[in-house]
Write a structure and sequence with these properties.
This protein has helices at 38-42, 45-50, 93-100; strands at residues 16-21, 24-30, 54-58, 72-78, 84-90. The protein folds into two domains: 1-67, Rossmann fold, CATH 3.40.50.300; 69-102, no CATH class. It contains three helices and five strands, in the order ββααβββα. Strand 1 and strand 2 (24-30) form a beta hairpin. Strands 1-2-3 form a three-stranded mixed β-sheet, with no helix packed on it. The protein has a two-stranded antiparallel sheet with strand order 4-5. The two termini are 13 Å apart. The mean pLDDT is 84. 7% of the residues are buried.
Length: 102
């Protein structure tokens, strides 16, 4: 939907996976294995979050003390094997603007 070409792979083992869409840099984080705050600085995450673009994070609570506040939180709950409940919460004015645009 954002124009990303090619396959989207999970960053589970790499912590972050970059993607490019027309006029948009996308960074997909998976903080599940994130344990050491030094990783944040060593990997340059501060610089990534300081630059424009879409940042999507799985397990954001594992890095909550280091990440900026989320504009929009997306919670996906499995209802059964085939059904999911998706809830969106806006936490900032930018997040509210995103929701209004849906």
């Amino acid at each position: 939907a954002l124009g990303v070409q090619g396959r989207i792979k999970s960053p589970t083992y790499a912590v972050v996976e970059p993607h490019e869409a027309p006029n948009l840099s996308i960074w997909h984080f998976d903080f599940y294995r994130f344990d050491d705050p030094r990783e944040w600085e060593d990997a340059g995450f501060r610089d990534i979050f300081a630059n424009p673009g879409l940042k999507v994070a799985e397990w954001p609570e594992k890095a909550a003390a280091l990440t900026p506040p989320a504009d929009l939180a997306i919670h996906i709950e499995a209802m059964d094997d085939t059904e999911r409940k998706v809830t969106l919460h806006a936490h900032t004015a930018a997040g509210r603007a995103l929701l209004q645009g849906l």
